[in-house]
Design a protein that fits this description.
Blueprint lengths: L7 E8 L4 H10 L13 E3 L7 E8 L4 H6 L5 E5 H7 L4 E5 L5 E8 L4 H5 L4 E5 L2 H8 L6 E5 L3 H6 L5 E5 L3 H6 L2 E10 L1 E5 L1 H6 L1 H13 L17
Parallel strand pairs: 1-3, 1-4, 7-8, 7-9
Antiparallel strand pairs: 2-3, 4-11, 5-11, 6-9, 6-10
Length: about 230
């Protein structure tokens, strides 16, 4: 087995997100004695994969992962593609996880469809992805107001917005809240992201880590059933 003569450290930023338990399980299957990340800061994992590579692991807000990796604070990170697009992070994205894939949708309260939405003189769209939403809808020529909020569902229910843009992670919750999907705008996927300069300096170590991720890749879950508006 290949062995490094000098210890190399890789810093890995993990998102505090819905997929965290799946990420943890996959890393444990790769041989990681997963540290307790309940406390903030860096957590050292000494040579978890037997290649002379020490890891410093930390957990953070998902929207910040791309920024930390792009600026070299972390060599590696795990982030979803819509967040990377939102921040314009310039990173290498060499690995796609089998889980963490979701439709990016335009959704609205039941009774609103695309035709009725387009007839409005001003369309208010709530989203936690204002930059990406503007880019998606720019070709449509809609007169839009982007309402930048974290809780888009509440924004629609309380009249702050007419519809919202976001990931569809739970069709059941969307239906129970009285919403339907008007349009699928794309797909979000979970990626391993790498700082370009870090890859140049730590190429062999990163390649070995990615090979372990490939070897321990779980089967992909069933695709999400999209609850479209029945009146469209």
């Amino acid at each position: 087995m290949f062995q490094y003569t000098d210890a190399i450290t890789l810093r890995l930023a993990l998102p505090d997100c819905k997929e965290f338990d799946d990420i943890k399980t996959q890393l444990e299957q790769c041989g990681f004695p997963f540290p307790d990340l309940s406390q903030p800061g860096l957590h050292l994992v000494k040579d978890p994969i037997g290649l002379g590579i020490d890891f410093e692991i930390f957990k953070m807000d998902p929207s910040d992962v791309g920024v930390y990796v792009e600026h070299g604070i972390s060599h590696l990170g795990i982030s979803s593609t819509e967040l990377l697009q939102e921040t314009d992070a310039r990173l290498w994205r060499p690995f796609t996880f089998s889980y963490g894939s979701y439709p990016l949708v335009l959704a609205a309260p039941e009774g609103i469809n695309l035709d009725s939405l387009e007839l409005r003189p001003l369309i208010r769209i709530a989203t936690s992805l204002p930059k990406l939403t503007r880019e998606i809808f720019a070709p449509k020529g809609w007169n839009m107001e982007i309402v930048s909020v974290q809780d888009s569902t509440t924004a629609c229910l309380l009249g702050l917005a007419d519809a919202y843009v976001g990931r569809l992670t739970s069709p059941e919750s969307l239906i129970n809240d009285g919403f339907r999907v008007l349009e699928v705008l794309g797909h979000s996927r979970l990626k391993l992201v790498v700082n370009r300069a870090s890859y140049t300096m730590r190429r062999s170590a990163i390649d070995k880590f990615m090979q372990l991720l490939y070897d321990c890749l779980p089967p992909a879950p069933e695709p999400i059933d999209i609850p479209f508006d029945v009146n469209d």
